[in-house]
Amino acid sequence: MPRGRQSGVNSTSQRGPQAGTSQNDEDSDVDDVGPSQSPTRSQAQHNLDKLTPAAVDRKMSEVVQYILIMEQRKIPVKRKDIIKHVLKEYRSRYTEIMKRTVRTFHQVFGLDLVEIDTKNHAYILVNKLERVEGDNMNWGDATPKMGLLMVILSIIFMKGNVVKDSLLWHTLKKLRVDPSERHNDFGDVKKLITEEFVKQKYLDYSRVLHTDPVEYEFRWGPRALKETSKLRVLEFVAKMHNNQDPKTWATQYKEAHQEAAASSKN
Q1: d(CA 101, CA 60)
Q2: What is the pLDDT of residue 56?
Q3: Which of 5, 56, 186, 256 is disulfide-compatible with 230, CB 3.0–4.6 A?
Q4: What kind and span of H or E run contains 254?
Q5: DSSP secondary structure of 52-112
Q6: Over the stretch 209-238, which tens digit does the pLDDT of each residue have?
Q7: How far apart are CA 114 and CA 76, in angstroms?
Q8: Cα separation values, 68 from 73, 74, 75, Å
Q9: Which residues of the chain have pLDDT under 70?
Q10: What pLDDT score was predicted for residue 174?
Q11: Which among 72, 76, 70, 67 is positioned nearest to 199, based on CA atoms?
């Protein structure tokens, strides 16, 4: 996690949690209150409306801590879980508190809170500070696992952005990482790839329709799309091939630069 650093708020950056929020959506997370409870609910709402900025800031700090804890586990944070586990009776102040949360992450931690699932309103933290090698991949302390992930992302990209699971397993075996055997660094390789990386949103793992026997395929997940780029991955592949020129792979090189150009315009 990067140390504190002051920076301006990028209002045109990735969509934050305040976007797409509606009172109706928030209300759907809580059971309806019957007529006999209306006066109590009304009084509670009146008390919340009178909360001081200091009280709201305290609750914002709790949200920040909750998100940081979830980020250590690389689990996307859902709005309904923030409301259920942190905000609770402060749920009506969700939008206000989350705006302060976004600002705190950006200004204090150099991180952006980015929505990667608009249906379930799930968010991840993305490092916007330049790293030494220019990569935003959130490596954390799990370097061996992140190294394996980079290899998998490379295989997917070089194979046209989608790869059958059978081909991925075969390729990893050639690299002496056998999904059917327990690895000293990765443990249960297949579980790591199909469950942990998928849950963390680094990979998308889906069944191929109308296949018998059943087949599955991998794509980049939304977190990978936010934290690294095809250009970085292509440079990684070039280094793995004795520092060849990335232009050697003409199709991928063109696609990577088109993505980079489109990203710079946003």
Answers
A1: 6
A2: 80
A3: 256
A4: helix 250-265
A5: -HHHHHHHHHHHHHHHHHHHHTTPPEEHHHHIIIIIGGGGGGHHHHHHHHHHHIIIIISEE
A6: 988 889 999 999 999 998 889 999 998 888
A7: 10
A8: 9, 9, 10
A9: 1-51, 108-109, 128-143, 242, 266
A10: 82
A11: 76
**Looking at the chain, how many residues does it have?**
266
C-alpha closest to that of 238 among 225, 228, 248: 248
pLDDT at 155: 93
The CA distance from 259 to 244, in Å, is 21
pLDDT for residue 266:
66
pLDDT given at position 160:
95
pLDDT of 34: 35
Q: How far apart are CA 180 and CA 190, in angstroms?
A: 7
Give the whole-angstrom CA distance, residue 66 versus residue 73. 11
CA distance linking residue 107 with residue 129, whole number of Å: 11
Residue 139 has a pLDDT of: 45
For residue 144, cis peptide bond before it (omega within 30 degrees of 0): no
Mean pLDDT over the full length of the chain? 77
Q: Which long-range contacts (CB under 8 A, 24 or more apart) does 256-260 make?
A: 256/229, 256/230, 256/231, 257/231, 259/229, 259/230, 259/231, 260/229, 260/230, 260/231
Rounded to a whole number of angstroms, the CA Rg of the chain reads 22
Q: What are phi and psi of 242, to 5 degrees?
A: 55, 40
Q: Is 187 helix (H, G, I), strand (E, B) or coil?
A: strand
